[in-house]
Design goal:
There is one protein chain. Helix content is 33%, strand content 18%. By secondary structure, it is α/β, with parallel strands linked by helices. Strands 3, 4, 8, 9, 10, 11 and 19 form a seven-stranded mixed beta sheet that branches. Helix 4 links the parallel strand 3 and strand 4 (115-118). Helix 4 runs parallel beside helix 8 (214-228).
């Protein structure tokens, strides 16, 4: 239910709709994009980042919230912790049980390895489950991996690691085939071909989807397969430190959130697939992420000597829910714009081409609501932009929204808003960690026998990710990490278990006068209000 002033704004939007349906907006030039980013995107806001003083990225800048987390003390005392009793002994230990971790587990098991997965929440509670729009793959006659490659590089500002992008786009059709072979239900045309649509920054329609719960369908498919193959999964069990013998990764210290007990897991190879950092709420933004997205994998890998890549850039999805307050920051999939929804200010005017890359789109919305003061005010004093969702049914026929966006339609109905007849209010929300632990195309890190896959890794997306490439990332690099770790484990003997690297890191923190009150991994966000 909208307020009277918001309803007045909707009337202006409706009055301008006939004109807007004929209006054509051009994409920004590269120079215009860069100028918009530098002036309005949160990554460029002064005072929001600081230089690291400890660790492999010493001297580099990261968001204050991430820097404080990386430069923290361990949850355990490495001088006193007992490593003599081994609670779990496995070939491949996978930390994280979302899309990347599950993909890795399946492939590592196929390689003949004994696999143990551990996740701090329930199996499948991950950002994968919450992804909506789709997964990219160049598998149509008018498309090619080369075109996909150019789109990914362009979207990332040509800062991406080329070898990672090459792996992403070449493996993409295989990823789609693999998922469908396990039973994933993709949207299809009457003749059986897969339905594909545009996303921001794409030159071809290559977005494959399962309505607007694509990530949920992927996660359920992977989870069922992991369970069917009998792979062991420890739930409510986080990894709080990696173990090394000084040169290689040899396991991890686990922490059971239900019993508060620690356990030692020895492994021949380890895969970190812990996802992103949305629940750090960078610069106070709401987020689209699941409750456990607290960058735990980055913390333990950084202490073990693994450099980060592109952690000075965060993706703010342009269309997060701005109203009603109960769903503030929740994702409004890019698919809404891909289907024809237009972004409209309080005057009923469009102000940017709707399928610009996400970083540019978000910056333009912040400009419209801030400097230009043309946002739509909510009863609580927030500001947002209309997303003219009724246009979708007008353009494609009644029932399109209910067919293509059923989950979102139901979400808004709960609050008395019918997005087939009324627009929805949006504003940028923290969505994705563009960077992470630096890897190569085989998911290897600076620490031997440690692999990283999915959102916890950095390099493939450069400084901005395109829609549909996150779900692709978790499958492509999850599979690659599983293959590498599984085959590597066959030739590795169980190594010595040590926390010496944590002791050294603590000494470096003390020398840098980092306050001991900082402790990480965070594990879960703290939303308690204190006086």
């Amino acid at each position: 239910m909208y307020s009277p002033s918001m309803i007045e704004s909707i009337r202006r939007l409706e009055a301008s709709r006939p004109f807007r349906m004929k209006e054509t907006l051009s994409a920004m030039s590269p120079q215009e994009k860069q100028a918009t980013l530098e002036k309005y995107h949160p990554d460029y806001k002064k005072g929001m980042m600081r230089r690291l003083v400890v660790g492999p990225n010493r001297g580099g800048e990261m968001p204050n919230e991430v820097a404080d987390l990386l430069e923290s003390y361990s949850r355990l005392d490495p001088e006193k912790f007992d490593l003599s009793r081994i609670d779990y002994d496995t070939d491949v230990l996978i930390v994280g049980a979302g899309g990347a971790g599950s993909s890795a587990a399946l492939i590592a098991a196929e390689a003949g390895a004994k696999v143990l997965m551990t996740t701090k929440l329930r199996f499948g509670e991950a950002n994968t489950m919450m992804a909506q729009g789709g997964i990219q793959a160049a598998d149509k006659e008018n498309d090619s991996p080369a075109l996909h490659y150019l789109d990914v590089m362009g979207g990332g500002g040509f800062h991406n690691k080329p070898e990672l992008v090459r792996a992403l786009v070449l493996d993409a059709p295989i990823a789609i085939q693999w998922l469908e072979g396990m039973g994933m239900m993709f949207d299809k045309e009457p003749d059986g071909t897969m339905t594909t649509i545009h996303g921001g920054g794409t030159c071809r329609k290559r977005m494959h989807s399962a309505r607007d719960y694509s990530g949920g369908e992927i996660m359920k498919t992977l989870r069922d397969e992991v369970r069917n193959r009998g792979i062991e999964v420890l739930e409510y069990t986080a990894a709080v430190e990696l173990l090394t013998d000084g040169e290689t990764c040899t396991g991890a210290v686990l922490f059971n959130l239900e019993t508060n007990d620690y356990a030692v897991a020895r492994a021949k190879t380890v895969i970190v697939a812990t996802g992103g950092c949305g629940r750090l709420h960078i610069q106070g933004f709401p987020c689209t992420n699941h409750y456990g997205a607290t960058a735990d994998g980055l913390v333990i890998a950084y202490r073990a000597g693994c450099p980060m890549a592109f952690m000075d850039t965060i993706q703010y999805h342009p269309t997060g829910a701005a109203y009603p307050e109960q769903i503030l920051g929740q994702l409004v999939t890019e698919k809404v714009r891909g289907l024809g929804g237009q972004m409209v200010n309080d005057e009923g005017k469009r102000f940017i081409y709707e399928l610009e890359t996400r970083d540019v789109e978000a910056a333009a919305i912040i400009r419209e609501c801030g400097e230009r003061k043309k946002g739509v005010a909510t009863p609580s004093g927030r500001s947002g932009i209309w997303l003219d969702s009724p246009l979708i049914d007008i353009l494609h026929g009644t029932g399109t929204i209910q067919k293509k966006l059923p989950a979102m339609h139901r979400q808004y109905q709960r609050f008395g808003i019918d997005m087939t007849k009324e627009p929805i209010l949006i504003y940028p929300t923290q969505h994705y960690q563009n960077g992470g632990v630096e890897i190569d195309e085989r998911c290897r890190t600076a620490l031997k026998n440690l692999y990283v896959a999915g959102e916890a890794s950095g390099g493939v997306h450069g400084r901005n990710r395109l829609m549909g490439n996150s779900l692709l990332d978790i499958i492509v690099f999850g599979r690659r990490a599983g293959w590498e770790a599984g085959h590597q484990a066959a030739g590795v003997k169980a190594g010595r278990l040590s926390l010496e690297h944590v002791k050294n890191y603590h000494r470096a923190l003390a020398e840098a006068k980092v306050p001991p009150r900082r402790v990480a991994p965070l594990l879960l966000p703290d939303y308690r209000h204190t006086a």
